[in-house]
Specification:
By secondary structure, this protein is mainly alpha-helical.
Length: about 220
């Protein structure tokens, strides 16, 4: 049994708001852990509890609170990456990424460099958009810290991106009835769909602004 399988088994037996927050903190930091095994199963359990316990007047785990605690954990993990990047600086971050421990965390200088390039290309908005991109999601807070992005803006865009992504995962958990193969299959496709919708919305508002300016 792999480490992730062991953690997943432990999580299944200790599923609560604290464990959701803790695992999402790990997922959002530099330690590789999939958010797909945290939020969707919790939402499925909450739905199952609701169908069996609502008649008794017992209040089961609430889906919205699952999303909020998952988002809290994601923000905490991102802040850890941000703070370490500010404190350690670029040379040490890159050296760690190429160390044995860094490789155990699935890091490399190439991955950090790609995240930095993405951050330079997209700007502060990358801390929001990056939450929907596998491989960037866990790393985007590192270049934000290295560039000393305004902390308030970093918190806002990270919270917003993590909240939207966790809502997507919650929807997946509800639709897929906790089946991890379906969740893993469609989480990537949904993240692509969200990015397409965001791009379309941006193009619409930018185009509308230019058209309005031209009429003036």
């Amino acid at each position: 049994m792999s480490l992730i399988e062991q953690i997943t088994a432990w999580y299944s037996a200790h599923m609560n708001y604290a464990s959701i927050t803790a695992l999402m903190t790990v997922e959002s930091s530099f330690i590789p852990f999939p958010s797909e095994v945290v939020i969707p199963p919790a939402v499925y359990v909450a739905g199952d509890q609701a169908s069996t316990l609502c008649a008794t007047g017992t209040y089961p785990v609430d889906v919205l609170i699952i999303v909020l605690f998952g988002t809290l954990g994601a923000v905490i993990g991102a802040v850890i990456n941000y703070a370490l990047s500010v404190w350690l600086g670029r040379p040490i971050i890159y050296k760690f990424a190429d160390s044995k421990l860094g490789h155990l965390c699935l890091l490399s200088s190439e991955k950090i460099q790609r995240a930095e390039e993405y951050f330079r290309e997209k700007g502060n908005m990358s801390t929001f958009i990056g939450r929907f991109i596998p491989g960037i999601r866990q790393l985007i807070s590192i270049p934000a810290g290295l560039s000393r992005m305004h902390f308030g803006a970093f918190l806002w865009w990270t919270f917003l991106g993590a909240f939207v992504w966790n809502c997507v995962l919650a929807l997946l958990g509800y639709i897929a009835h906790g089946q991890m193969d379906l969740i893993n299959k469609y989480s990537h496709e949904l993240s692509v769909a969200i990015l397409v919708l965001l791009a379309a919305a941006i193009l619409y508002f930018v185009g509308k602004k230019f058209i309005f300016s031209a009429k003036r």
